[in-house]
Design a protein that fits this description.
24 helices, 18 strands, alpha/beta, single chain, 595 residues, 9-stranded mixed β-sheet
Length: 595
């Protein structure tokens, strides 16, 4: 399949050669998410747009492009003639390179003079970025690759007039600005150059002949990097890892060699490679990536491996632990069901090529990177960008603990015969508030990541959410759920648009972590309260089907709505007439308002 061509490590020349055929195949996929991408030009866009389209399609995103005039990124953004605003981009990418830096210091300039130049140059790019942000969408800005030559040799890194030192300083200013500016993201062109080597990346012929920022065969890597940011912003990251054990997390076969005979720790080169890989996985877990074991092993043997003192990972680091003799494809599907995510949210890591091929064939959508030697395992995952971080919320960092708490809840449920009694035993408290600036980041993130409980599949930018906060024509609600096992964080959002005495629910999303906990009923109770306060008598609900939201196709009917229409595509419109004596539907949790 063409899509395998895009897996890391990929053949850049082959991608360039077959780009039209790859694009045709990927465009034929179903349920692509349409998005408008504006590319503002400092350097030639050309092939970059073609390959970026391929990588976005591979991540389920169908882009429509707007291309700024060559070299006029600043003018097109800061002095828009109206065409960019009319295009209404979902994302803006400013495609620039070190060649777009205009005022560089010269040998003999003082540190103060060089700093003024650095601030002025950085501000020029930031002004363009902020003009893009004013259109209400995320902006991706390149930082700068290092100069391909050094007039002063090594002194370029230390002399105030050195271009190497200058570029590094401009990059630091941009990094600080991106850290402090919501919706501004840096594409690390400087890292890409270092990763592939200056001579290979910064091909002067490509610049002189075509005004490309890098060699032609480096463009797929640049496009992949930008696509990783965009797909992360749109909630298309992977969420979980399914990990083999023998010769994957340690060297050797634990069932044959015993826990003391396997290779790990810092005593041997191979052991160091496995230890570093485990440390890398532990750091991913700290970001909210869910670690799971999928191994053909006796469970007692598998657990013993993690009990060694020099094992970085411990059994408690895993959400699901399936060490048995079932097919790994069956285990992975079972894990997805237990965690309540889709199988295509997984990355499968196994040293055995036969096991990898079985997963590719039997569980479509799972990412299955090829693995080389143990010292290359990290690269295989890291360079693929499965878990690209754009917004790291407190809830992300607590995600692993939240899923473990869900497992404890499921275990407790098994001891109850009556489901309502089980829910009451959780001692739940639902906290409900209107959208506010303090929670806008998490609200936006949840909207763009939720696929299963998502009735209309609408997506919102942070800027769009901010405009709703004080808009009297909208009812907004977020919900947090706390129980005796822990705090689930903000896990549901509703947006309702009021016109006269009718309110249309434009969006209703909820995290899969809290499905079947009656939070949706409690949220509807609060929504009715807010609607009545605005004089609303009728609430309309809309359902637009996708491959992933079939779970909620009849949701409105379960909370008292009446189906008014349904078209051939399965789009439905419901209506709820608010009775004067409306009675709350949720009676299994305490509820309170927080604003």
């Amino acid at each position: 399949m063409a899509v395998n061509i895009l897996d890391y490590p990929f053949d850049a020349d082959l991608i360039l050669q077959k780009k039209r055929a790859i694009k045709r195949e990927l465009r034929a996929k179903e349920n692509l998410l349409p998005k408008k991408i504006a590319i503002m030009s400092g350097v030639t866009v050309g092939v970059m747009q073609d390959i970026l389209e391929i990588y976005l399609l591979a991540n389920g995103i169908a882009p429509e492009f707007y291309q700024g005039q060559y070299g006029l990124f600043y003018e097109n953004l800061c002095f828009d003639d109206g065409s960019l605003a009319q295009f209404a981009p979902d994302v803006i990418y400013i495609h620039t390179s070190m060649r777009n830096l205009k005022a560089m210091p010269v040998p003999g300039d003082t540190a103060e003079e060089a700093e003024k130049l650095a601030q002025a140059e950085a501000n020029r790019f930031l002004q363009a970025a902020k003009a893009g942000l004013a259109l209400g969408c995320p902006v991706i800005l390149n930082n700068f690759e290092l100069p391909p030559y050094r007039v002063m040799g090594n002194a370029e890194a230390t002399n105030p007039g050195g271009h190497v030192r200058f570029v590094r300083r401009v990059n630091e200013i941009l990094a600080q600005a991106a850290d402090e500016t919501p919706n501004l993201y840096l594409n690390d062109l400087c890292y890409l150059q270092a990763q592939h080597g200056m001579d290979a990346f910064s091909d002067q012929t490509a610049w002189y002949a075509y005004k490309y920022p890098c060699a032609l065969d480096q463009i797929p890597y640049l496009a992949q990097s930008v696509a990783n940011i965009i797909k992360s912003l749109l909630g298309r990251n992977k969420k979980a890892l399914a990990l083999d054990l023998d010769n994957t997390l340690w060297g050797g076969i634990i069932g044959d060699d015993g826990p003391e005979g396997i290779t790990m720790g810092m005593e041997t080169p191979a052991g160091m490679a496995y230890a570093e890989f485990q440390q890398y996985l532990k750091e991913l877990s700290a970001l909210g990536v869910l670690l799971n074991v999928d191994s053909k092993n006796e469970e007692a043997n598998a657990v013993a491996g993690f009990e060694r003192a020099d094992s970085v990972l411990k059994k408690d680091d895993f959400v699901c632990f399936k060490a048995n003799w079932e097919p790994k494809s069956h285990n992975l599907v079972a894990m997805a069901k237990e965690i309540n995510i889709f199988p295509d949210s997984f990355v499968f890591i196994d040293d055995n090529p036969a096991e990898r091929e079985i997963i590719r064939q039997q569980v479509p959508g799972v990412a299955v990177p090829d693995l080389g030697a143990p010292e290359e395992y990290i690269h295989s995952i890291d360079r693929s960008g499965y878990f690209e971080v754009t917004n790291l919320s407190a809830d992300d960092q607590k995600r692993v603990a939240m899923y473990k708490q869900n497992a404890a809840r499921a275990e407790m449920q098994a001891s109850f015969g009556d489901y309502s009694e089980y829910l009451r035993s959780l001692e739940m408290r639902g906290e409900f508030g209107h959208f506010d600036n303090a929670h806008a980041e998490r609200i936006t993130q949840l909207i763009n990541k939720s696929n299963q409980f998502n009735l209309t599949t609408r997506r919102y930018t942070a800027a769009e959410i901010e405009t709703l906060i004080d808009d009297p024509n909208y009812v907004t609600l977020y919900a947090r759920l706390v129980d005796k096992f822990g705090d689930n964080g903000i896990i549901a959002n509703v947006i309702g648009h009021v016109a006269g005495d009718v309110m249309d629910i434009d969006l209703w999303v909820m995290s899969c972590r809290v499905l079947k906990r009656d939070l949706e009923k409690a949220m509807f109770d609060k929504l009715v309260e807010d609607a009545q306060a605005k004089g609303v008598k009728v609430i309309r609900g809309h359902y637009y089907p996708t491959a992933k939201n079939l779970l909620v196709k009849d949701f409105y009917a379960t909370i008292g709505f009446v189906l008014k229409s349904e078209d051939e595509a399965g789009n439905k419109e419901y209506e709820f007439v608010i009775p004067a004596d409306y009675q709350p539907q949720c009676d299994v949790m305490e509820t309170l308002r927080v604003n």
